[in-house]
Design a protein that fits this description.
By secondary structure, the chain is of the alpha+beta class. The protein is 38% helix and 14% strand. The longest helix has 18 residues.
């Protein structure tokens, strides 16, 4: 039986707005890719020719670096392929967090794929499942009651220090870029 969650545990310890998440989920539905890599890791990727859209994604969920893919020049009478920009995250904690956030908005096919990734992450060292007895997160923070967030209805533990770190990056990027919302003027 599920344990009653305290009030603090009911609240995500960061401030992603629902509108931002809904915007992201819709984009991911169309342009995103959730996959289990050959090395067994999981990753979420959005690859587009629109740099401004990728920049907005990166404000919400900062990744290490935006990959720029310059296609090889083709023969003159063909249309020149455009430069692609790829946003990608692969840290298990972050993949799990983003999937959990966008899951309610996804359609059947991507939802099934994301659930597959979550199940896979549950079998990976350091990401839950058999590692329930782990005392520290992947970054070495201790899973004390105060530092542990368990999303209602799941048994996965999230490290609050790591989540706060990422949400601080998110707020800093928002300030830097002046992108308060994907759709400026809306709240
Ligand atoms: Zn941590």
């Amino acid at each position: 039986m599920a344990k009653m969650q305290s009030q603090a545990e009911m609240t995500w310890p960061h401030d992603w707005a629902d509108l931002d998440i809904a915007w992201f989920a819709g984009l991911f539905e169309g342009e995103g890719c959730a996959e289990i890599a050959k090395n067994g890791g999981t990753r979420l990727t959005i690859r587009m020719t629109d740099r401004d859209v990728i920049d907005r994604v990166n404000v919400l969920f900062p990744c290490k670096n935006i990959q720029v893919v310059n296609p090889k020049p083709v023969q003159p009478h063909y249309n020149q392929p455009k430069t692609h920009y790829a946003w990608r995250i692969s840290k298990p904690e972050r993949v799990r967090l983003v999937i959990n956030l966008m899951l309610p908005y996804l359609g059947e096919r991507r939802r099934a794929k994301c659930l597959e990734l979550l199940a896979h992450l549950g079998t990976r060292p350091g990401t839950g499942g058999p590692n329930r007895l782990k005392t520290h997160c992947a970054q070495g923070h201790e899973y004390t009651p105060a530092n542990t967030y368990i999303r209602p209805g799941t048994s996965h533990r999230h490290c609050r220090i790591c989540m706060l770190e990422w949400s601080t990056e998110y707020r800093a990027r928002r300030r830097l870029t002046g992108l308060e919302r994907p759709f400026p003027g809306m709240e």
